[in-house]
């Protein structure tokens, strides 16, 4: 694994010393929330606005689509980018965090930013007179905008990092906005109640810019309605008008389903939670079409079906092995993990009908700033756990997590690092069993990086 200064799954190139030096500088000089948590959190737009000015306001040189929310914003960003690519546009995609390679965060038509471009940007940044200390996220975001401008993209699909109102990406002036849903996550920064969190997320809504809200009910819905009235835009609530129906799983993983606008479609993204993301994206496509963006029906079909190939999306209900069935998923908060656990137990029940005695194993770890006790209540008793921790400072120590598992009476082993836990769990699994890797995005990242290195 990468050293602590190099970050998890850093994507260092053994034969590119200039790139490695630039990436090492980014990791060592700038605070990074995904690694250290609160110490790197810098709410407010002043630094981002100053950076943007220093680099010539690159975000003004392409049309952007802003995507926020608690869960599903990464998948939604990738699906929408894939559809725009299939429509013939050149599309920049900015997401976070990365899993295996830093450059996953910045893509143009699915191609990661070249190492030479990362090196060049860091070199230019070091020579730029700037009175301030940007965070890792702020500078990486500016690298993305600079790259998209130089590549002359038609659209930049920009995922919010955290929150919305004070997130550094909120300097953009998008042509459309999407907010997927609201659940409790990062409560120490965004608020302890769903309406408080919704108000932060709603901060990306702008005057006259059309907005799709994936899921919202009650007080949360009212927050978005009020914000829309304040800025002069009427939110479209996607869940209140389903454009999809008749979801059925397909053998290779994913879904086939019917749609109101395009007839039958397929998606390779097999998580149950993707059903709502897909409906949200289809509403976003309607919104973009009304705004004059030409998106042929066939582009929607192709983009939906080929999102992984077109964008490189990984870590979402991802099948790593078929026998046993190994699934890796980056769901990491109560809502995300609740759906995953329900889907896992449904799969296990189906397997046990075919092969009585099929077992569930889970390689699992968390970051220390999550509501761990609430999350642990979601975990099935009928599973064998390999308790581990990711190679980042934010990770909850495996020994401390194991104590919680013991107190709940859950069968478990304590194994670090995460790739070793994965291999031990895989060796113990039979062809009819299920193995799940998750709990933390960074546990998935460590396992995927190890598998890539071993190829």
Please give the structural blueprint:
Blueprint: H1 17-29, H2 33-36, H3 46-54, E1 63-68, H4 73-86, E2 91-94, E3 106-108, E4 111-112, H5 115-126, H6 136-150, E5 155-159, E6 176-179, H7 187-190, H8 194-201, E7 211-213, H9 218-231, E8 236-237, E9 244-249, E10 255-259, E11 263-267, H10 274-290, H11 297-305, H12 307-311, E12 318-321, E13 325-328, H13 334-354, E14 360-364, H14 372-376, E15 384-387, H15 398-408, E16 412-414, H16 418-428, E17 434-438, H17 441-453
Parallel strand pairs: 1-5, 1-6, 2-5, 6-7, 7-8, 13-17, 14-15, 14-17, 15-16
Antiparallel strand pairs: 2-3, 3-4, 9-10, 10-11, 12-13
Helix pairs in contact: 1-5, 4-10, 4-11, 8-9
Q: What's the gist of this structure?
A:
The chain is of the alpha/beta class and 455 residues long.
Q: Enumerate the spans where pLDDT stays under 50 for 5 or more consecutive residues.
A: 1-9, 33-41
Number of strands: 17
User: Considering the protein shown, what is the CATH homologous superfamily of the largest domain?
Assistant: Mur-like, catalytic domain
Helix-and-strand structural type:
alpha/beta
**Number of helices, where a helix is a run of at least 4 consecutive DSSP H or I residues:** 17
CATH architecture grouping of the largest domain:
3-Layer(aba) Sandwich
Query: Any idea what the shape is?
Result: globular
Within the largest sheet, what's the order of strands? 4-3-2-5-1-6-7-8
Task: Provide an overview of this structure.
The chain is α/β, with parallel strands linked by helices. The protein folds into two domains: 308 residues, UDP-N-acetylmuramoyl-L-alanine:D-glutamate ligase, CATH 3.40.1190.10; 136 residues, Mur ligase, C-terminal domain (Protein-Tyrosine Phosphatase, Chain A). It is 41% helix and 15% strand. The protein has 17 helices and 17 strands. The strands form three sheets. It has an eight-stranded mixed β-sheet, sandwiched between helices. Strands 12-13-17-14-15-16 form a six-stranded mixed β-sheet, with helices on both faces. The chain has a three-stranded antiparallel β-sheet with strand order 9-10-11. Helix 9 links the parallel strand 7 and strand 8. Helix 4 packs across helix 10 and helix 4 crosses helix 11. The longest helix has 21 residues. The radius of gyration is 21 Å and the shape is globular. The N terminus is likely disordered.
């Amino acid at each position: 694994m990468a050293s602590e200064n190099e970050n998890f799954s850093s994507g260092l190139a053994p034969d590119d010393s200039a790139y490695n030096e630039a990436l090492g500088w980014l990791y060592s000089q700038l605070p990074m929330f995904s690694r250290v948590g609160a110490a790197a959190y810098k709410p407010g737009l002043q630094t981002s606005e100053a950076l943007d000015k220093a680099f010539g306001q690159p975000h003004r040189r392409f049309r952007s689509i802003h995507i926020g929310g608690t869960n599903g914003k990464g998948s939604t960003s990738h699906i929408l980018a894939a559809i725009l690519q299939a429509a013939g546009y050149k599309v920049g995609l900015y997401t976070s965090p990365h899993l295996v390679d830093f450059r996953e965060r910045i893509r143009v038509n699915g191609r990661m930013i070249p190492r030479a471009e990362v090196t060049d940007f860091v070199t230019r940044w070091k020579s730029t007179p700037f009175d301030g200390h940007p965070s890792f996220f702020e500078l990486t975001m500016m690298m993305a905008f600079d790259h998209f401008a130089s590549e002359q993209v038609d659209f930049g699909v920009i995922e919010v990092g955290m929150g919305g109102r004070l997130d550094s990406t909120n300097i953009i002036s998008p042509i459309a906005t999407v907010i997927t849903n609201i659940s409790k996550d990062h409560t120490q920064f965004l608020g302890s109640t769903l309406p408080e969190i919704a108000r932060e997320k709603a901060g990306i809504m702008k005057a006259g810019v059309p907005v799709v809200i994936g899921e919202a009910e009650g007080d949360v819905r009212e927050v978005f309605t009020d914000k829309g009235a304040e800025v002069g835009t009427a939110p479209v609530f996607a869940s209140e008008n389903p454009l999809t129906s008749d979801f059925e799983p397909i053998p290779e993983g994913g879904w086939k389903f019917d749609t109101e606008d395009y007839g039958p479609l397929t998606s390779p993204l097999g998580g149950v939670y993707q059903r709502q993301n897909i409906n949200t994206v289809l509403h976003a496509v309607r919104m973009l079409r009304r705004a004059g963006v030409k998106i042929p029906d066939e582009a929607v079909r192709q983009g939906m079906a080929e999102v992984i190939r077109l964008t490189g999306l990984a870590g979402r209900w991802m099948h790593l092995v078929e026998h046993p069935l190994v699934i890796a998923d980056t769901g990491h908060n109560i809502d995300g993990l609740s759906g995953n656990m329900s889907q896992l137990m449904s799969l296990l029940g189906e397997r046990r009908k075919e092969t009585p005695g099929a077992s569930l194993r889970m390689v699992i770890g968390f970051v220390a700033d999550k509501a761990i006790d609430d999350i642990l209540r979601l975990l099935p008793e009928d599973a064998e756990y390999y308790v581990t921790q990711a190679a980042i400072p934010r990770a909850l120590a495996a020994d401390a997590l194991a104590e919680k598992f013991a107190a709940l009476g859950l069968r478990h082993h304590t194994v670090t690092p995460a790739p070793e836990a994965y291999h031990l769990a895989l060796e113990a699994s039979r062809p009819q069993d299920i193995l799940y890797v998750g709990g933390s995005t960074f546990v998935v990242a460590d396992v995927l990086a190890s598998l890539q290195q071993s190829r």
